[in-house]
Amino acid sequence: MELEYHEIITRTALGEFFSEAALREIIAANFRQDSLANLIGKPYLHFDNDKIAESLAYINREMARLAAAEDESTRWDAFGRLCHTAQDFYAHSNYVDLWLAEHGGPEKTSPAEIDGLAAHLLNHPALRTGSFYLLRDIVYYIPGIRTLARKIHIPTFSHEAMHLDTPARGAKFAYAMAAAVQRTRFEYRRAVDALSAQSGSAAVERFLGRNL
User: Fold this and answer.
1) Nearest to residue 30, comparing CAs of 184, 166, 179, 207?
2) Which listed site, 83, 93, 143, 171, has its alpha carbon 20 to 30 Å from 59?
3) pTM value?
4) Per-run averaged pLDDT (10 residues), the chain, 212 residues
5) C-alpha triplet 199, 201, 203: angle, nearest 5°
6) Residues 48 and 101: beta-carbon distance below 8 Å
7) What domain count does the chain have?
8) For residue 37, what are the domain limits?
9) Residue 201 — φ and ψ, nearest 5°?
């Protein structure tokens, strides 16, 4: 998902909980997840290449790093990064397709109705994420070539075929955004619970930017 939409999701989900200063740090960390090295060599950071188990394990590692940290900078970094990964799940997987198939499609539903945390869909046997391979897929991002490449052939389960990264992808994009907001709030509650158990309520207040 493009960074401007990560920011919209993060602000929508978390704006009522964090101070503006804390929120800016979290968004900056979220953006850092899209460094060139992370985009090319670490597909699990973006729920790419069917690395679902690895992506979930990464989110849990960052959550543990947040809970164990003794400074706000590390906590915000860990939280921003794990939120980016969690948000990408809905843009890079067929979760929205599976939910829509159960509920009659965009014609009979609205984005506000989607349940981004449906356990049976998160564990659905047909759940998968798109695959991105630089040497194969770079053609879809080169000006002057990408339009032709997209007309000639797009592999069925490639990132290019599956992603919901921008509104240009159609009606399903809004469903991915709504589900990502839900997931971000879920991860927020997990973070607060983990930090509270590890370090107490004062640490939570600092994490939220209220006592800085």
Assistant:
1) 184
2) 171
3) 0.92
4) 97 98 98 84 93 98 97 98 98 98 97 98 97 72 74 80 94 98 98 97 95 62
5) 55
6) no
7) 1
8) 3-131+165-207
9) -65, -30
The answer to whether 62 and 81 have CB atoms below 8 angstroms apart is yes
Angstrom CA distances, 21 to 25, 57, 188, 207, 211, stand at 7, 29, 17, 11, 11
Nearest partner of 134 among 55, 32, 58, 37, judged by Cα: 37
Q: What is the pLDDT of residue 135?
A: 58
86, 80 Cβ separation under 8 angstroms: no
Asked, for residue 137, whether it belongs to a domain, the answer is no
Which residues 6+ apart lie within 8 Å of 201 measured at CB? none
Helix (H) / strand (E) element for 40: namely: helix 36-41
Q: Is residue 138 part of a domain?
A: no
Q: Is 13 a domain residue?
A: yes
Is 155 inside a domain boundary? no
